[in-house]
Prior knowledge:
Radius of gyration of chain B: 24 Å
Mean pLDDT of chain A: 87
Number of strands of chain B: 0
Structural class of chain B: mainly alpha
Low-confidence stretches of chain A: none
Structural class of chain A: mainly alpha
Strand content of chain A: under 5%
Order of helices and strands of chain A: HHHHH
Largest interface: A-B, 23 and 29 residues
Shape of chain B: globular
Number of helices of chain A: 5
Distance between the termini of chain A: 26 Å
Number of helices of chain B: 26
Order of helices and strands of chain B: HHHHHHHHHHHHHHHHHHHHHHHHHH
Largest sheet of chain A: none
Strand content of chain B: under 5%
Helix content of chain A: over 70%
Oligomer: heterodimer
Shape of chain A: globular
Largest sheet of chain B: none
Amino acid sequence: MKPYDRLDRHALVMAIWTPSAFVAAILLHRGLASGGGWWIFAGFVAIIAAFVAHVIANAVLGAGFTTGERALGIAAFAIAVLSLLLAVLVGPAGLGARIFLPVGLGLISLVAVVIAYLVITFGARAAFERFDVIRDNNARPASRLPHRGGRR
Amino acid sequence: MTPLLLSVLIVLALYGVYIAAISARHEARPADFLDGGQALPGWAPMFLLPALGAAGLGLGPHLALVTRFGLQASHLAVGFVLVAMAALLLWNRMWYVARIAGLSTPGEALGQFYDSVTLRVTMLALAVLFALPFSANLLSSAAQLLERATDGLLPRAAGVWVLAMSLAIPAIIGGWRATIMTLAMQAVLLALFLPGSTILAEILAAAPGFPAVPIPVEEGVLWDRLPGVIQYSAGIGKEMPVAGIFTTVALSSSTIALLGIVFSPATLYLGQTASPGRAVGISTVWLAAGLLTGILVLGAPLLATRMADGPVALAAQFYAFEPLAGVGLIIMLLVGAMLAVTFFVTGGAILVTRELVIRYLFPDMSEREKRFSARVAIGFMFFFLAFMASFLPLMSAILGSVALPLAVQLLPAFLGLTFLRWISRGAVLAGMTLGMLIVFFTEPPGLILFEGLFVNLPWGRWPLTIHSAAWGLVINMAVVLLASAATLRAPDNLQRNRLHDALFQATGMTVGGRGLFWALMLLWGFLAYGPGAVLGNTFFSHPIFTSGEAALGIPSLWVWQILFWLLGVVLVWWIGFRVGFGRTSEEGIRTIELEEGTRRPPDWLAAGLSRVNGRER
Lengths: 152, 617
């Protein structure tokens, strides 16, 4: 790896996400403020487009998502889900009903895109195994043997 | 809008500081501050080059021209295809020149190849011209827009200093690599916001706009057609051509002027410091010729129509609908100018450091000292920039007007360096001097100076609606051709041949012997923005093969522009990917060392230098 490779990749990822996040913020804010489902849909399209561009950048540079990026993505998604639930439960009357369906569908579409990416990149089995911690929780060395079901 | 607008500007500034800080932390060698280790990631110049093209055109001024003159002004965007092609050919060859002969700045390349101190000094002067008056003019316009957008809360002069500070700090911290990576993000921002603003303006419009209704130009101006091939006008300032200034010769000569952005020292330096790969091809073919030209050809007439009352009025309309969208429109126009300012000032300061401070004043500096001197130079350059933009805006505008046409006068010199080995030093110098003089006296600085000191000249700016860049280049090329023919056997051609042989060995490519391509290129140029472009006025609305009219619903000229934009992309793709100029590779490079010049600097220059650095001549 050359000295600047990590820096260059990080800067590229930032160059993809910063303008896209600005555009997504415009569209989502408009959608949430006015209740326009199509604006919310366009906002999620902007996020998905940035994700696809990120995946392409990874493929071109021969890299994967870093731990920090994964953590940030999961945290942002969790905050979005939590915010949606709070908006429905304790938000102003009518807000939840207005935004629940478009935002919910948007969040589900994000999950679908991430799953599609994992399946395309790693295959269905390997993608599942990346989350399959139960098979990984046996600390005994013997568990790693193939005939004992180990896969490491 | 003010708090939100300032908040977004602060976020942009912090982004620059963040990238600069991590770039400085990762710096492998202190000298990398000046050139990014000659390995800038390919994606950064790839995104940046089209944005620089847009900056050369001037996003705000271009939209204002389209509002004033209609589709005849918008036709200028088709010329971006030629800019993309020039960038493709020149960047490819300059990259190889840097790797083969170790000539890592444009001034060094020209100076050593032609063994000419004058060319080195000329490149240095051009770097300063782009860094100070040209950029100061852009910064002043940006600050003026900021003043209007904040209802006077941030006056123009204060805006200039605030913007200059926010641009200077990241550049001083991070150097060349960080600057280019930050600007690449701003280029992506532009690429998203330009079409986005156009679409939003159409969604929000209460009444139909272009092409359903004409672009609201002044009476007498032809909004939907070109006003002829040429107009026998003495020039702007003496008399205004009827029906608009954008005749086909005005368009083709303005396109030549646009090439100045490619020949500017900082842009060439960007190409020389990029990593090898296909980025140059993707950038020029798909992003510059394809995306940027397409956005401008298709979107500028629509956006300009909606911007008839000025950008701030449209931003206010956006803001009422969605606050972030209103701010986004202002940010788009600001970024269009700030991007060019940061690039030319940082690039200019680094080139001054390399070409003057390191080469002549203190050649024995360590790497850390070189980095420090570059930081000091960047700081000073931004200070002078802010000084000029805030206190000398008119002088900046006047002097800045010659930057692009003067840079174009280096075309023969670069042709000699990269393709035509028979172009000699004497020819280049004679042609360039005459060309630059002609440019000077057909642009405001020369006209104002001469008319102030002596008598009124019979011509104004751009006589016969021909841009000063073309006036200068025609004479320049004529002199170069004649003088080169007389100096074919000059003794300095051995050095030139060595570099050209090594270039051919490394690339295996020439642009000669491709008759079909050049025939199509000439035909395309003639019809796209040459005299043949007048056919587009009525070609699709009143077809020549029938007496009837075609009810297109859109102006014939617009269809013509779209058609020749698409055909132009094919031509750039051909030279980029079929011929192979879109790719650079370190394979096959055989390094050579050009002999140090036998010519010594002029006595007055050497004496001045020895006084500064204290060394004997």
